[in-house]
Request: fold
Amino acid sequence: MLDRPISPSRRAYIGVMGLLCALSVLLVCALALFLIGYVLAAGLPNLSWELLTTKPSYLSDTIGILPDILNTIYIILAALLIVLPLGAGAAVYLTEYAANKRLVSVIEYAAETLSGIPSIIYGLVGMLVFTGVLGTSLLAGALTLVIMNLPTIMRTTQESLRTVPQSYREGAFGLGAGKWRVIRTVVLPGCADGIITGCILSVGRILGESAALLFTAGFAHVLNGFLSGLGSPGATLTVALYLYTKEPGPGGAQASFAIAAILMALTLTINFAAVLVGRIFKKRRAL
Reply:
């Protein structure tokens, strides 16, 4: 085809749209950098070893976030230990075993619907279901987070399983391997990057959740071990941020900015880890 000359009005339209796209990119980047810079600049000066390694005490009028850090770690571990087998197992069944496509479509639609429900609704359901049985505890909060993150793990695993070429499965079947052996030795290693990336992103969502945990996990600042902590109420870092923001005086505001800086740093680290894991697995596939 012969190249046709572009009319002046078309050139003006292309130029205007390109300028608007560039301005949109600059605006988003500027807002993100301003938010990150403001939180880190206001929070890092308030970080101290005493803040990170002690618990709060109203008698000595001190603030410490060590219980909140441990509670955050406990609830992340408990939620991942439950949601990963459930989500990955459901995805494997729906992708590799399920023959009823209508049932698969219904389940996928239900999962997409669950992923769009506000977290406060999950908190109310968790309070009625899990808290009524287990009491206000980190375990009740972890089970609520499992329901919240199950659609994410399931969908990311499904999409990763579908990226494995069908010829890999056929070749393994041709060598005499069984269905489960093909999935375990061929399919899952071939999509491990997507599963790990989904897991990392779920950790980020768990880390930033507060509304659901206010109703289920509580807001106690008590040092506990892992097993005893799961059966006790406790505040995570995001819940502690909410509570210290409401504290009168400069101490609450300083602690809030310090916790916000920690959460911002953890969020950036999680996002960079997800990108790094994807690149590492991509290089291994290219070898």
Q: What stands out?
A: The chain has two domains: 8-46, 49-286. The longest helix spans residues 250-286. Residues 49-286 form a domain with the MetI-like fold fold (CATH 1.10.3720.10).
